[in-house]
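re: that chain from earlier
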Amino acid sequence: MKILVIPNRGRSYNAVRPEAECYIKLAQRGHQVTIMSSATNAYIDEYKKSGVTFIELKNLKKHSWTVIKQMRDYIKDNDIDLVYATESKGIPNASFACIGTKAKMIAYRGTSGGMYRTDPSNYLCMLHPRIDGVIGVSTPCTVNIKSKVRQAIKQNIETIYKGHDLDWYQAPAADLAELGSDEQYFNLLCVGSPRPHKGTHILLEAAKQLKDIENLRIILVGDNLQKQPFLDLIKDSGMAERILLPGFRNDVPAIAKACDLLVLPSLAKEGLTRTVLESLSNGTPVVSSANDGVLESIENDYNGFIVPIGDIDALAERIKFLVNSPDVLTKLSNNSKEIIKGKMSHQQTVEHMEAYFEKMIASA
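^ sequence. v structure.
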């Protein structure tokens, strides 16, 4: 197969690794894989060392005639069979570039909401009429996509998990002392965000019920959390000195490995949360709200616990339970890697992606 990929650029190496390693593995299997991306792509060094061809895009605008021409010329000159675009700025340009070519145009969708038939801008992106198929990162994503796209391509919508490889997580755990904690404490990690649907405020409200647990430390990683309303929520929690705000970090898997528990309090729009799979790969169990794709990776009382979305009391109760139940926490930790060995494995993702691409190219 001759495949052109417009991948996610990512903010960190770990953020794009599960996706990027699939393209590298396809190249190793004998397929001709070209990556078109910016020079700031977090995986650029690995791409250049691998068997893929890397071409720098001329700009990063969502709709750019310059980029469309660059992609289109490459597709035609190199007789590309399939174009796969995975980020919002790449999908529109790639879709237009495929017009008038034989290349199958495949888009990626990583959230289970936010696509509206009544929004004309969607027809320049995810609902673009030149798109031949869509990969959803989880079953809820796929269900949502099928409810929105045109009838002619519904059979080409498929779920392909963005799998992980346990070999990626052999590095030592982070030194929590650098973040203001210590391994003697019960360390809870949450990768937060100011966006309301991420539910950071839910965890901070739950912290009010956790203030009496003196050995608990909450490590809240993420940009722009040292502002309102989070500062007041932290102050009112009664454990302000034990809620640590290290900001954005590119070593989240290593931090997860050093922590006892990951908490995901999201309210909606989760496809297949990367930090959940990173934590499970490192043997760290998860307490998550019952949102979408997380239900495909977390099993109650096996590798974590699921609580109702937005339920502050239930979230606080599960955390308290695990702080006071080391045997249960150990059991969850021992089970955490099992799903990565099978259902969410990188090897399975590559095989599924290869089969899907071959099927699409062979279709009329």
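The chain has 13 helices and 13 strands.
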